[in-house]
Amino acid sequence: MSAGPGRRERRSLLLSGLVVAAGIASVGLCVGLLGGGPPLPVALALVAAPLVLAVAAGVSARACRASAVVLVAASDFAGLAAAVDLGLLLVLLVFGRVPVGMQVELVNPVLLGLLLVATLAGPLGRWAGRSARSVLSGVRRSPDELVADFGDRAGRGTPVPELLRQVAESMRRDWRLSTVEIWSGPDGDLASDVLHRGVVVPAPLDDVNVDPLRGPELEVLARAGVAGPGWLEMWLPRLRPAPDAGPRQLRLAPAVHGGRVLALVVIERPATATAFSAADERALAGVARRLGIALRNRALDDALAVTLADLQRSNTELQASRARLVTAGNAERRRIERDLHDGAQQHLVALAVGLRLLRDGLPPDWPDLELLDELDLAARESVRDLRDLAHGIYPPLLRDAGLAEALRVAAQRSPLAVTVHDRGLGRLPEPVEVAVYFCCLEALQNAAKHAPGSSVTVTLDGGDGSPTVTVTDDGPGFDPTTATAGGGSESMVDRIGAIGGTVALRSAPGHGTTVEVRLPDVGGMPARPPRSVASRISPVRAG
User: Which of 241, 254, 291, 462 is a Cys-bridge partner for 425, taking CB atoms 3.0 to 4.6 Å apart?
Assistant: First the structure.
């Protein structure tokens, strides 16, 4: 199923209509100042017609595909209208005043004459140039003009064999040749070390297989320049015309670039036609030279496209690999946190409860009560330390309540004064929340290490499809150009880069430090819904 007309194409068509309408309106205004032109209703209809046509064409897929061509044509028309406006203003200067009487009757003929001159000036100039070149050099188009079309079509991705066929047909038509052959790599392969006779215009009735040109023959051709039958007889006799084909005039020229023969152009005329002149040979050399440059550029473009595709594929694979590593790391963190919470922490809690029950069941004069109190305190501190360790590995609050609440709890454990502002960030996909959480923890640790006593502000901004998180301190700051990135900074970049985001660090001496995390557009990614904190509390039984 084909896609409908795009919004950009419809805008181009509407812009084309506006440009044409503006050109008509400007000409009508100038003619009106001179007292001529059609009646006002007709003039308004002429101005409105391009707009109506542009709106109507916007619903046609075919018209939308040609929107770029239409816009170029509208621009040409605007230039023509500007030329007519200048001509009408010149008429006003000649009169020296607004026309009156019999002068008004001259306005419309003058307008028609200006329109005719502006319309025919371009085509007549090009025809005169071609005629002059035909008289001077015996060809209708210069080599630059002939190969210019090749370069334009090559940039639009047309296959090389088709491009070479177009060049051959243009040469045969404009240079009055009987046959044009272009040898090139197989299927247009510009990196090939052999040349095949790929294009013959006009196509022969019997397609005879001709052996390709290979290494030693290409080395000879690379030094040939423009050559004729005598050169072929001595160096490449197998390319000379067959005896039964009758006498013919023949010239060839290799398209060489960087010492490599990229193509070979062979042209022929009947023996009875005008002989090849020095101008013809110079033109053929120019075509071969320009053809070599164009083919080399096309080869570079193809190689660049392949390289870019490989880079894009490698980047995609690298991003996927980083995402898998981060996902696996997060899963391992969750497993360790769960094992600590459900295993070692539960045993320590049970031990602490048992010690308390034992302490409460002993008489007050028991000699080792102080030792039991110390053991009970140590057990409780171990439970607290283990809980903090588990939460540092993977805080359950992050999964249950979200990024803002998890950071507020982490801020309470920081030795600095930390304030967390949530400006509508909301819930994010779990890999994004985990990456941002640990990135913020790293930034808080850096602030505590390098800016002790400072205050820190953490801002979570949902933005408009481009969420950001910033961690800013009012510490002494530093010069980023002279500082060396540590493992913490690299960890932040790696974590955020794995989810498709970026990390920017801004600082200056005396102006504090800001770590800005820009996250990818997560509007279409599923976010984990918040869960009750109570669902993560496991009952602990004593005894």
Answer: 462
The Cα 332–Cα 219 span in angstroms is 64
Category of 438 on φ-ψ map: left (φ > 0), alpha (ψ -120 to 50) or beta: alpha
Amino acid of residue 375? L
Q: Residue 79, CB half-sphere, CA atoms under 13 Å: how many?
A: 10
pLDDT in tens, 362-381: 777 777 777 777 777 777 77
- Name the 3-class secondary structure at 416: coil
Angle, helices 7-33/67-95, rounded to nearest 10 degrees: 10
Please, which residues bridge with residue 270 across strands? 248
Q: Determine whether 83 is exposed, middle or buried from the number of CB atoms within 10 Å of its CB (0-12, 13-18, 19+).
A: middle
Is the per-residue pLDDT at 459 higher than 90?
Answer: yes
Residue 364, preceding bond cis, omega within 30 degrees? no
If pLDDT is split at 50, 70 and 90, which confidence band does 3 have?
very low
DSSP alpha helix (H) spans, 394-460 = 396-401, 403-413, 430-450
Other CB atoms within 10 A of residue 297 CB: 15
Angle between helices 107-137 and 278-339 (to 10 degrees): 100
3-state secondary structure labels for all residues of 180-249: EEEEECHHHCCCCCCEEEEEEECCCCCCCCCCCECHHHHHHHHCCCCECHHHHHHHCHHHCCCHHHCCEE
Task: With CA atoms as reference, report the closest residue to 271 among 238, 247, 242.
Answer: 247
Note the pLDDT of residue 133.
53
- How many whole angstroms separate alpha carbon 472 and alpha carbon 454? 10
Could you tell me the CA-to-CA distances from 201 to 170, 181, 182, 287, 447 in Å, in that order?
Answer: 10, 6, 9, 17, 76
The three state secondary structure string of 498-525 is: HCCCEEEEEECCCCCEEEEEECCCCCCC
- Answer yes or no: is pLDDT of 409 > 80: yes
pTM: 0.46
Dist CA 25 CA 43 (whole Å): 8
φ and ψ of 330, to 5 deg = -65, -40
Complete edge-to-edge strand list for the sheet that includes strand 468-473: 417-423, 455-461, 468-473, 513-518, 502-507
